[in-house]
């Protein structure tokens, strides 16, 4: 228990921040859990100096003091402070590494200098070292969109200033004016996050899988700000489709959290029918599918009932976009994910599958509403939609949805499309559904290898959160994001990207990329939620793993599960279940 609560501490390295022990959660009320959901701020010391414009002690002095934890208080007799010294020809700069991607800003404290006028500094926050070395605009597409990350500030004489609200790991500071001698006591990152325990956990004999599980959890945690965002640097918005993998991760790691209904309700109220959510028809369908998953995990019927009027109207609106051949003809922005956005056959195949899944989910929900007439109506629509089988799709994303909608054979699609060319032509968003389709094809080993190769490929490049997009081929020829770019390797952040995430506009902390976290818990640890969260069915698939242990948040408390592979191949399982939870094997 202590370990699961302390899981966020891992990334702080040598920081002395302490979250305390995991509070008791067995039979804890919603009100009590809500008390752990407040936003908090803490201050982090840089872990490393990545680059500095001068190493002769002429323009930059005592830089090692920045790596020592301070108290945040300036004094008149501070000695041996970090100094930036400028001339007409040299304006010094330094790049700091805070060790892990965070959300927040920076607090800069300055000591005494001859002039009492405020000191001008240029700040450049970056999710990569390359981003801190860029200028806004130009070919590399560095921006100040959504959040400011490149600007000039003034620091008071013998005082401190705190600025910034963005996603970053690295910070570059440059002295703006000539002929300055600036003594800086501290440059501490101001880390803002939601104070919630990691109730879910995953530990196996494969450290790479463990790191991937935790990175996905942390990626979503950072995006749990005022609402559930998709990115903390860019796309600080409630994108409903993007939320689906995030919500599955929240179910797995944090359990029932009010940010999910808060964000779902915002999307509903911002887009009254006949509008599609975020102007995208598939995102309105994802809204309903998220509600189905949320109810499946938590069994909150009163909240589901609040959606009844809107859900029925949405389903009836969707039913008007089906032609006489049972083919979807949805209007609005026709979109699955960016890599498929230029392929009409893939888009149609995916939308057809989503329509089937949405009406099946709608039928099930109507059963919970005790509306047998609508339950039957929507079931029939779903059945009719299955009479049209899209042709010509060869993308992994749309093929996966067809498998999940039961209009394509899982094993055939897996062998002919999903496993073709390894992890090429993947997407960080729809990678989750590719993994789900591979599980349906009983290719658990293959899916585990996809996770290690694709999501692990981001870790190999220095990622501490998962990215908006990733191409494995580009990754193999690129340097790490935590190093100064070199001429003999491509820059994974600056040189690539497409659509809305070209170059440095690319978000390196995107919640839609967290799919392996919930997938590993469900399919490897084997935790399958039934009966509105009242029952857990254990179906582990260890593959080549020697063991897997983990915890899972339920409405009754935390379930603890362990599986060990014996020498004869048999799996031995241990269970510690909270009172009231039914567990079947």
Automatic annotation (TrEMBL):
Species whose genome carries this gene: Algibacter miyuki
Keyword Signal annotated: yes
Top-rank lineage group of the source organism: Bacteria
InterPro entries from the UniProt entry: 6-hairpin_glycosidase_sf, 6hp_glycosidase-like_sf, Bac_rhamnosid6H, Glyco_hydro_78_N
Domain (Glycosyl hydrolase family 78 alpha-rhamnosidase N-terminal) ranges: 76-180
Protein name: Alpha-L-rhamnosidase
Keywords, in A-Z order: Signal
Domain Alpha-L-rhamnosidase six-hairpin glycosidase: 199-500
Pfam families noted in UniProt: Bac_rhamnosid6H, Glyco_hydro_78_N
């Amino acid at each position: 228990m202590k370990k699961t609560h302390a899981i966020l501490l891992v990334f702080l390295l040598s920081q002395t921040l302490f979250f305390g022990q995991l509070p008791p959660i067995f039979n804890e009320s919603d009100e009590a859990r809500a008390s752990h959901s407040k936003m908090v701020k803490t201050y982090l010391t840089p872990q490393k100096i990545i680059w500095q414009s001068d190493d002769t002690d002429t323009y930059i002095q005592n830089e090692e003091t920045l790596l020592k934890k301070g108290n945040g208080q300036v004094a008149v007799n501070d000695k041996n402070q970090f100094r930036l010294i400028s001339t007409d020809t040299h304006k010094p700069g330094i790049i700091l590494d805070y060790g892990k991607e965070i959300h927040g800003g920076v607090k800069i404290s300055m000591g005494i200098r001859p002039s009492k006028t405020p000191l001008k500094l240029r700040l450049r926050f970056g999710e990569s070292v390359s981003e801190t070395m860029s200028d806004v605009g130009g070919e590399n597409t560095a921006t100040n969109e959504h959040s400011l990350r490149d600007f000039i500030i003034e620091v008071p004489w013998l005082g401190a200033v705190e600025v910034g609200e963005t996603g970053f790991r690295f910070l570059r500071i440059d002295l703006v004016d000539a002929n300055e001698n600036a003594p800086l006591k501290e440059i501490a990152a101001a880390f803002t996050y939601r104070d919630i325990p990691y109730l879910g956990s995953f530990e196996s004999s494969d450290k790479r899988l463990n790191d991937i599980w935790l990175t996905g959890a942390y990626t979503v945690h950072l995006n749990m700000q005022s609402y559930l965002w998709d990115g903390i640097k860019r796309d600080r918005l409630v994108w409903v489709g993007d939320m689906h993998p995030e919500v599955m991760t929240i179910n797995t790691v944090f359990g029932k959290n009010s940010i999910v209904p808060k964000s779902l309700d915002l999307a509903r109220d911002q887009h009254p029918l006949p509008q599609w959510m975020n102007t995208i028809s598939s995102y309105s369908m994802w809204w309903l599918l998220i509600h189905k998953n949320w109810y499946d995990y938590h069994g909150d019927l009163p909240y589901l009932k609040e959606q009844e009027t809107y859900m029925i109207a949405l389903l009836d609106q969707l039913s008007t976009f089906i032609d006489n051949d049972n083919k979807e003809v949805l209007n609005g922005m026709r979109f699955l994910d960016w890599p498929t956005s230029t392929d009409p056959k893939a888009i149609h195949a995916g939308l057809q599958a989503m329509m089937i899944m949405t009406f099946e989910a709608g039928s099930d929900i109507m059963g919970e509403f005790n509306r047998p007439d609508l339950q039957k109506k929507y079931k029939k629509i779903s059945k009719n939609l299955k009479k049209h089988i899209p042709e010509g799709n060869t993308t992994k994303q749309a093929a996966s949805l067809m498998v999940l909608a039961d209009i394509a054979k899982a094993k055939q699609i897996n062998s002919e499309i999903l496993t073709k060319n390894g992890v090429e032509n993947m997407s960080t968003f729809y990678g989750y559904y590719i993994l789900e389709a591979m599980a349906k094809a009983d290719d658990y080993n293959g899916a585990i290898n996809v996770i290690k190769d694709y999501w692990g490929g981001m870790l190999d490049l220095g990622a501490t959160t998962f990215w908006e997009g990733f191409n494995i081929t580009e990754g193999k020829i690129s340097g790490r994001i935590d190093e100064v770019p070199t001429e003999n390797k491509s820059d994974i952040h600056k040189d690539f990207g497409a659509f809305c995430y070209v170059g440095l506009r690319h978000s390196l902390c995107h919640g839609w990329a967290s799919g392996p976290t919930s997938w590993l818990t469900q399919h490897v640890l084997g935790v399958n939620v039934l009966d509105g969260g009242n029952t857990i069915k254990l179906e582990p698939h260890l593959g080549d793993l020697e063991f897997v242990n983990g915890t899972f948040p339920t409405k009754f408390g935390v379930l603890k599960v362990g599986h060990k592979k014996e020498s004869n191949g048999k799996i031995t399982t241990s269970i510690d279940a909270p009172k009231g939870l039914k567990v079947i094997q």
